[in-house]
Amino acid sequence: MSLSAVHGTLTSLKSCQADIGTGMDIVTDVAMDLAESAENLEELDEDIAVTLSQVNFTCPLTQVEMVNPVKNKKCNHHYDEGAILGLIKTRQSQKKKCRCPVVGCGNADVRESDLIPDQMLRRKIQSQKRNNNRT
């Protein structure tokens, strides 16, 4: 390969590198625009969540706002951690399975291992409390 061919190839690569840099700048701008749009949607979601707060944030066992929400991996229902763990332990002491307390749910065997902390829901509940304290 001749020196001029190598020089031509390097020039082409530098041109491609500049085009890639421009493309990355465009992608970054689009990503930032999407992030801003997502923030606006989150604000709208919070407004909707405030409207539906009793439905979204109320534990089906205690009928009060959840403090430490957990999500059941099997049926996707939410409960306050202390309430559902208490129910599971009570049913275990009776040698019985724990049914999901949500009316109409077919999950007849709720286990502690099926429960995962729902940090997103917890943050939404805390955010609603802060917003309610401001007004």
From TrEMBL:
Q: Which UniProt keywords apply?
A: Metal-binding, Nucleus, Transferase, Ubl conjugation pathway, Zinc, Zinc-finger
Pathway connected to this protein: Protein modification; protein sumoylation
SUPFAM superfamilies tied to this protein: RING/U-box
Write down the CDD domains for this protein, in alphabetical order: SPL-RING_NSE2
An example of a Pfam family matching this protein is zf-Nse
Annotated protein name in UniProt = E3 SUMO-protein ligase NSE2
- Cell location: Nucleus
Q: Does the keyword Ribosomal protein apply?
A: no
Q: Which family does it belong to?
A: Belongs to the NSE2 family.
> Under the GO molecular function aspect, what terms does this record hold?
SUMO ligase activity; zinc ion binding
Q: Which residues form the SP-RING-type domain?
A: 44-130
Q: Which GO terms describe its biological process?
A: double-strand break repair via homologous recombination; protein sumoylation
Q: Cellular component terms, GO, for this chain's entry?
A: nucleus; Smc5-Smc6 complex
